[in-house]
Amino acid sequence: MIDKVLKANEDFTKEFEPKKMSHMPQKKLSIVTCMDTRLTGFLEPALGIERGDAKIIKNAGNTVAGRDVIRSVAASIFALGVEEVMVIGHTNCGMANVDPEKLKTSMEEKGIDPEEIAKVDIKEWIGAIDGEESNVIQVVEEIKSSPLIPDDVPIHGLIIDIESGELKVLVDDR
To answer: Cα–Cα distance between 89 and 159 in angstroms, integer?
Structure first.
């Protein structure tokens, strides 16, 4: 696969016209979303955003497990000028209803030490969620309740239909 990626990059750079851009998000927006491959090239146009418009924070199931999401949202606000945050989940998420036992078995089959697996709550660690909409609402609340996130920054919650691209607002924090 790496050879294909390097070839694609070579082709891309031959045709690409470099443009100096700021690392600051032009729409002063930060988005917390899922790493699902179906969102690539889909989410941004569905939201009307382009390269340079927003900071996009992705992880499995768009959860706040661990400290990275809060840290990244805080960095986008305090260091990069973000004034609004959107948590955007999607329908038919692969992290919904993950089977922790099946995951544990798969990890062990790939050589992961069972003692290391036992040190974590597999469901929480992997980012498994019980429902796409309830997860978005929970993540919004976790971000809003963090003492490191200012009260005057709106934190919205939305879900995008992975097939049609239609957005549904779950939390409107205006």
So the answer is: 5
Place of tokens 């992880």: 59
* Dist CA 55 CA 82 (whole Å): 8
164 DSSP 8-state letter: T
Task: Give the pairing of strands 167-171 and 155-160.
Answer: antiparallel
pTM for this model (two decimals):
0.92
Q: What residue has token string 């919205």?
A: 156
Could you list the pLDDT tens digit for every one of the 174 residues in the chain?
A: 999 999 999 999 999 998 899 999 999 999 999 999 999 999 999 999 999 999 999 999 889 876 899 999 999 999 999 999 999 999 999 999 889 899 999 999 999 999 999 999 988 888 888 899 999 999 999 999 999 999 999 999 999 999 999 999 999 999
CA distances to 5, 66, 88 from 73, rounded to whole Å, are 30, 13, 14
Q: Which residues are 159's β-sheet partners?
A: 89, 168
Place of tokens 């990890």: 107
* Domains with residue ranges and CATH for the chain: 2-94+131-171 (3.40.1050.10), 97-129 (no CATH)
* Dmax (CA) of the chain: 51
Q: What spatial distance separates the first Cα and last Cα of the chain, rounded to whole Å?
A: 45
Tell me which amino acid residue 97 is: N
